[in-house]
Amino acid sequence: MTGTWQDLVTASLIGTERVPVPVSPVPGLPPAEGTTQDPAAVLLDRAALLTAARRAGRRPDRADPPPVCEPDPRPVVSQAAGRRLARMLGGESPDLLAEWLAAVAARGLRPPWRSLPALLDRACGRSADMRLARLVAEAGGPRVRWLAGLNPDWEFVLAETGTGDEAWRLGVASQRRVYLAELRGRDPGAARELIAGGWPAAGPEERVMFVNVIADGPSLADEPLLEAALEDGTASVRNAAAGVLAALPGSAFSQRMAERARRWLRIEEGPRGPRLVFDPPAESDDAMRRDGITPRRSPRASQSADQTGLLVETLARTPLRTWTQRFGLTAADIVTVFAGDLAPWLFIGWSRAAFSQRDQEWMAALINRALTGRPPVTAALAELSHLIRRADPRLGAPGVLPDVSPEAPSALRYEIGALRFRYQMLKELDHDHGDG
Predict the structure, then answer these.
(1) What's the burial of 372, exposed, middle or buried (CB within 10 Å: 0-12/13-18/19+)?
(2) 273 pairs with which residues across the strands?
(3) Coil, strand, or helix at residue 301?
(4) Helix (H), strand (E) counts: the chain
(5) Per-domain residue ranges for the chain?
(6) Backbone angles phi, psi at 266, to 5 degrees
(7) What span, in angstroms and rounded, lies between the C-alpha atoms of 19 and 10?
(8) What pairs with residue 270 in β-bridges?
(9) For the segment 201-255, what is each residue's pLDDT rounded down to a tens digit?
(10) Are 198 and 213 in contact (CB under 8 A)?
(11) CA pair distance 176, 169, nearest whole angstrom
């Protein structure tokens, strides 16, 4: 039919006065008889018939049936959980999708069938996010792999990322990280040897990646490698190593920081009651500089800026139990002690420590303080956001946290709303399975 159509196009371009109108047989219709009509009208009539025939399609060829999908015995999530998934895929709190998928897989559940194409499209749209692709494949199970085999755009979920040493030798940065994280989960010692062997040739970004992989479950066996990283020539590597060492119970680094912090921060009784006072040293020694504690870092910085920066560095790297033991108070009591102009910097430093040490008691105390005290300064909002996202979702249960003031920054209201969304999201996965 294509050749006949092209003949009609050629005749229309050359002109019916110079060439005859070609016969255009249409399948299923008798052949056209000779006519005395205007050749131009005949050409248009035959083109119209052929256009309709082309749009009508053709008889199907023989096709093999698609492969049969393996059965999935896992129960489907509840109807409420399925509706919440649809809300996330529709744009509400989309950053919680990975946590939802991980929770579904951990509970031995599966998403509703109707949501799988949208999940695949979402993971496909963020192809660099290997973790999301793995979670979609794990939570979706056999049905998502079956769908991926029918659509080339979704084949990424069939790829074995992070397995085999080829991912380490030849993979891109994200694949190397996946491989290293999986190896560390199976054999921490082998992962540690791989990091130590690759450290000299690795660039700064990859060395930071090494430290971040260690940060997910460090042990004292990692301490020598992290202590050596404190002498790295790149500040981001040193800071990452210091953060992991500070969160590692019993590390020599955390003990050094606790000793300094106890000397520099204290509670004094004043005319208006207890008050937190920060009294840092005027100069730093070699040991302090090695641990990243550097007062008076810039000649152009004011003494006040130097002290607040030093305060934040010190608190962020000091084990939080240092304060409850030293002051004999709970975290909730400590964060309410009057501190004057130091208050926002204390909040930032303690927030960073609570985040890295995953201390839920301090997270709850700091979030409560942000909701019941003065609105946090802009500089503290980023730290507060990190805290809320790492906090125990049970804080989002009704009545656990105070209501957010209308005067609170919109970013704070959003994060508290997301925390309550997380609580409901995970609660729905624990009830009424199998009717989604």
Answers:
(1) exposed
(2) 270
(3) coil
(4) 21, 2
(5) 2-56, 252-391
(6) -145, 165
(7) 9
(8) 273
(9) 989 999 999 999 999 889 999 999 999 999 998 989 998 999 899 888 789 999 9
(10) no
(11) 8
